[in-house]
Amino acid sequence: MPMKNILIYDIVSDSWLINNTTGNEIEGRTGHTAVMTTDKRIIVYGGLNILRPAFPYLAVLDTSKIPYEWSAPTEENSIGPITEHSSIIIKNYMITAFGRNLSERDYTKYDIKDVYKLNISNPLSYKWSLLATPNNQYNSVDNNSSIFDSINTKTDGVSVRWIVTIIVIVTAVIFLLILIIHKIIQRKTCFRSNTLNTSIDNQSSIKD
């Protein structure tokens, strides 16, 4: 069944609505991914239509238009029909990983191990390229910097801040314990001194 009619859930009225779409005819599917860009494009990729790959592999629903409009943009370096994969949006890229390659006949290559990136900056043309391989080797995304580098840098920054915070807290606790112990010792010393003085005074009174 083509996806001409889209079900929309209204969280305000707690009700379902049917939205009729225009544009290209997009086959219904399961096992696909759907992610939304900042400019209100929903990018649908992969999936199965009954027992065969859904067509087109890449479909885009423009929700900035009323009614919503489907399109099947050109796809450079296609990674082929896949299903049961995962996709997320990072900046101008859709990152896709895992899943199964429906065009692969070799069982050992059926499960996808590589991570791919799809450049979505041009709404009319999308380009796939390899992002990472199983041995954690990854390619540059743009400006000679990797998405993973950005994530790792943020993670490292958070780790450093946590380490510094823990050191400060531990130092403060140790200082507080030392201060408390010092006060306790000081009080005990004063108490013993007062007790000794009282004893001496009592002995002096007895002698007198």
Automatic annotation (TrEMBL):
Protein name: Galactose oxidase
Annotated keywords: Membrane, Transmembrane, Transmembrane helix
Keyword set includes Flavoprotein: no
Membrane spanning residue stretches: 162-182
InterPro entries: Gal_Oxase/kelch_b-propeller, Kelch-typ_b-propeller
Keyword field contains Signal: no
Lineage: Eukaryota, Fungi, Fungi incertae sedis, Mucoromycota, Glomeromycotina
Pfam family, one: Kelch_KLHDC2_KLHL20_DRC7
